[in-house]
Amino acid sequence: MADTPTATAPNVSVEAPLWRALVGYRLLTTAYATGVFLYHHDTYGRPLVGVVYLAVLVCWTLATLRHVSSAERCTPVFLGCDFSLGVGGILLTPVADTTGAVNPSLPTIWVAGPVLALAIKHGWRWAAGASLVVGAANVLEEGGLTRDTVHNVLLVTVASIGIGYVVEVARASEHTLAEALKVEAATRERERLARDIHDNVLQVLAMVQRRGTEIGGGAAEIGRLAGEQEVALRSLVSTGPTAADAARDVAGSEYGSGAGAGGEVTRDLAELLAARAGTAVTFAGPGSPVAMPERAARMTDAAVAAALDNVRQHAGESASAWILLEDEPDAVLVTVRDDGPGVAAGRLAAAEREGRMGVSLSIVGRLHEVGGTAEVVSIPGQGTEVELRVPK
Questions:
Q1: Residue 358 within a domain
Q2: Where is each Histidine kinase/HSP90-like ATPase domain found (predicted)?
């Protein structure tokens, strides 16, 4: 029964491409570390140490690809083991390369993979700490600071901190967007409910108050209570939601279920508006059907009904109204005109400030929901004209 589509946060996280890239990085660097070892295997003093380590590295990498496919699967236990394997390979290098003839460590650039995983999972602070540990391991393996060691450590540190910072900013942006969409959804649902309340409940309460005052006696007390409830209800529907209200309203409302009409189903607006014609209402439109998306047609028809209700309420039962439907090339134009006394300048804005949301919600709000516009032109003594324009 909802009139508006659900506003939801995007389901695809900015982190997903980073995790996919990390999977590819681990595979490529594993192949690279294996290739470097095979190329220099005759140079190692204890090549068997390198063979055992790289066999473990290859098996570990292939067996844990699933763990680096998402943040949920990249558990702290896995990160600890992964990082330990990389740092352990660096410290094990002097045992395999007893002469120090081979420059790269056994895991080579594979060791940056665990650091990047920490950056994506926990942010730049963890990445910075892990980079410093890797750097200290490289210094111990080399026996001191060298130009290559400094370059490698800086490269890993800058890359991991940069990625970690970008991920943190992206997460904050996604959270802000989700909260904003919740507020927007709750606001639009509150406006929809306010329109329905205005079209039905508030008008009934106003009529009870008016008739009770006219009758007098016990009915006057009922009218007074109805008037108090009308004021309280107008205040409620004209109050915007807070962020906390938004989350609660969206979670419990029918609007949050995503129900709504799609653009594939069409409705003849001329047929809907023609049904509004009567003794005091004249309809004029094209001879052919005016097909519109069903939701847009229903919202436009409801806005016209609200305009006619305003004519009856403010211009009186004897006032006449005319509905003109025009099917233009780029839009559908509906004009509702009456011969009532008109509205004084500034009265509509004052009514909205007082909580009387008939025009702003029941007419302008409905057209805004379907991407249209509504304009009210009134000259005291010359009637009121409401122009509704819905783009195709």
A1: yes
A2: 303-391
204: CB partners within 8 A, 6+ apart: none
Distance CA 32, CA 26 (A): 10
With b for 16 or more beta-carbon neighbours within 10 A and e for fewer, the 80-111 pattern comes to eebbebbbbbbebbbebbeeeebebbbbbbbb
SS3 375: strand
Alpha carbons 258 and 333: distance in angstroms, whole number = 29
Burial letters 199-223, b for 16+ CB under 10 A, else e:
beebbebbebbeebeeeeeeeeebb
Residue 149 and residue 272 share a domain: no
Taking the C-alpha atoms of residue 173 and residue 182, their distance in angstroms, rounded to an integer, is: 14
Reported as a single tens digit per residue, the pLDDT across 75-87 is 999 999 999 999 9
Q: Structural domain tally of the chain?
A: 2
Rg of the chain over CA atoms, in angstroms?
35
Task: Tell me the one-letter amino acid at 12.
Answer: V
The letter for the amino acid at 220 is: A
- pTM: predicted TM-score of the whole model, two decimal places: 0.46
Last residue of a domain, one of 146, 172, 198: 172
Question: Is 170 or 304 the better-scoring residue by pLDDT?
Answer: 304
Answer yes or no: is 164 within a domain. yes
* Whether residues 286 and 158 fall in one domain: no
Q: Which residues contact 344 (CB under 8 A, 6 or more apart)?
A: 380
By residue range, what is the domain housing residue 53? 15-172
Co-location of 275 and 146 in the same domain: no
Chain center to CA of 241: 17
For the chain, what is the mean pLDDT? Answer: 79
Residue 298 resides in a domain: yes
Would you say residue 183 lies in a domain? no
pLDDT tens-digit map of 40-65:
888 888 899 999 999 999 999 999 99
